[in-house]
Amino acid sequence: MNRLRNPGRFVFWVILLALAFHVILALKAGLVADEAYYWTWSLHPALSYFDHPPMIAWVLWLSTHLFGTNRWGVRFPSLFVSVLIGLLLYRMAKEMFRDRWAGLWAVLLMTSTLLFSAGAFLITPDSIVIPFFLLALYSFWKAIDRNSDREMLLSGLWFGLGLLSKYTMVLLGPLLVLFLLLDSRGRSWFSRPSLWGAGGVALLLFTPVILWNSRHDWASFRFQWHHGMQAHQMAPLDGLSDYLGGQIGVMTPVVYLLILAAGAIAGVRLFRERSRPLLFLWLTSYPILLFFAYSSLKAKVEANWPVEGYLGAFLVTGALLTGWEVKPWLLRTALFGVGLGLFANLLVGLQVFWPLLPIDPRVDPTGRMAGFRTEDFEIRALAEGLPPDQRPAAWLVDGYSNASQLKFQEFGRTPVYEIHPKRPFRTTVLSETEARRLVGKPVLLIQNGPGGGFVREIEDRYGTTRFLGTLHIPRRGAKDQAPILEQDVFLIPAFRDGLSGEPPPPLRVF
After folding, report:
1. Can you say how many angstroms the Cα of residue 285 is from the centroid of all Cα atoms in its chain?
2. CA 338 to each of CA 257, 333, 341: distance values in angstroms, whole numbers, following the listed order
3. How far apart are the C-alpha atoms of 475 and 354, rounded to whole Å?
4. What distances in angstroms separate CA 36 from CA 219, 254, 367, one per listed residue?
5. I want to staple 180 with a disulfide (CB 3.0 to 4.6 A). Which of 79, 128, 186, 379 is the partner?
6. If 0-12 CB within 10 Å is exposed, 13-18 middle and 19+ buried, where does residue 395 land?
7. How far apart, in whole angstroms, are the C-alpha atoms of residue 486 and residue 417?
8. Beta bridge partners of 215
9. Is 504 a member of any domain?
10. DSSP 113
11. Residue 445 contacts by C-beta under 8 Å, 6 or more apart in sequence?
């Protein structure tokens, strides 16, 4: 690595080329269901939401008002953030370790993972929380390193904005306190007003989420605790193996093993020699990964949940890699891991457009990105083929995921609503006011098919249904034309308001 005279320039080109790759994906790949669902939140500005804090909705509201309701408007924040993350990692390594090569390694490791590559163009709460997590880390470090009250207060600002982005940001707080307790110079901060002021700023910024939950029976807090710590969906060891397997997949195998090895080596080294930067980054990264490993013993952990834990781990691994130049085989292993990860990213990106890998279309998530656009086209063609007096005034859809996707595709053309939700507070749900406007008008009713039970479940609450057919949407360009989406479409010639005249069906938080 010493042959590189200017690693900063190399970092610039890595970030630029990755950005170009992700811009193409952002513009050409259809939205995934969660992206469309988060977009529906931006249509209903609120203090918070059932599934997550409100920052993603606020960001999407601003972005779509600037760039329009299209893929660029929805995904621009993720593209911007991906550049910011790379620059922050390089800057933090350069300042904390006085080592630009550590920053280069950190950026290379991040860029080569499927998890961070997907987050560089798909809009999720992770895309929003990561920069605030890094900025909070960076400001907190500068506060204790430079003895700066201003930076400490600034870290509280970033921490609060992170809490507004995703609940997992709360894990950082105890780890920062633990660092102050373990650091001989850090303990003096407990007597300084700026530390408590930073906590006050963070709490003040989190107030909208607290207010929303207090008005809704603490539904979001209860749901997230149950979802992450109490939902026994598999045996404990099966949950742990599922977690580890998922991490190996999304982080790519060699990079993941490098990160774990670096964590173990750094942990042992910290017992022998005290390095403040290494201790700080280790404490704010690896315990998060261990926390979710523990959580996997109690509930299913999604592959993206530990994402914040990898930020400091990239820097720890980068710092150790620059000291392993006396062991060429380790550097060759790291370069192989980065190369393998970049190749995997390229292959997955190509799979979005051309199904090169022989994966069953029904389980290939890349195919569904384009599938919903085709589904929307075929539903619209079916609707436009009806007699003029039966053309639907709205589409009623089974489930928030499909409703969100079709709502995005039909935005500005046909109203799309979810009906009979299984959980409360969905921003896709047909309201009583909107239901009254549809009374007597024809509407389409769309359920997951073929032969789904949704229509039987709601009976004739919204009117008599007439079956129009089942749509079978194959993966475009795939040799295997097995459908990736199947929808039963019904016509309700005269909509009946099934919301106002009777109590709503019971809604489950869990």
Report:
1. 18
2. 12, 9, 5
3. 10
4. 22, 33, 16
5. 186
6. buried
7. 18
8. none
9. no
10. -
11. 395, 396, 455, 462, 465, 489, 490, 491, 492
Partner residues linked to 181 by β-bridges: none
Residues 428 and 486 in one domain: yes
Half-sphere exposure of 492 (CA within 13 A, CB side): 26
> What is the distance between the alpha carbons of residues 199 and 203, in angstroms, rounded to a whole number?
6
Ramachandran quadrant class, 299 (left: phi over 0; alpha: psi -120 to 50; beta: rest): beta
Note whether 222 and 108 are same-domain residues: yes
Backbone dihedral region for residue 440 (phi beyond 0: left; psi -120 to 50: alpha; all else: beta): left
Task: Tell whether 106 and 177 lie within a shared domain.
Answer: yes
Domain annotation covers residue 358: no
Instruction: For residue 422, give its domain range.
Output: 365-492
Same domain, 42 and 85: yes
pLDDT score of 127: 95
What's the distance, CA 456 to chain centroid?
34
The pLDDT averaged over each successive group of 10 residues in the chain (510 residues) is 73 97 94 95 96 97 97 98 97 94 96 96 97 98 96 98 97 97 93 97 98 94 79 76 95 96 93 90 98 91 95 96 74 93 94 84 79 89 94 95 94 94 88 92 93 87 93 82 90 86 54
The per-residue pLDDT for range 465-508, each reduced to its tens digit, is: 999 999 999 887 777 778 888 999 999 999 998 776 555 555 56
Question: Do the domain assignments include residue 2?
Answer: no
Verify that 449 and 334 share a domain, yes or no: no
| Residues 374 and 237 placed together within one structural domain of the fold | no
What does the chain come to in residues?
A: 510
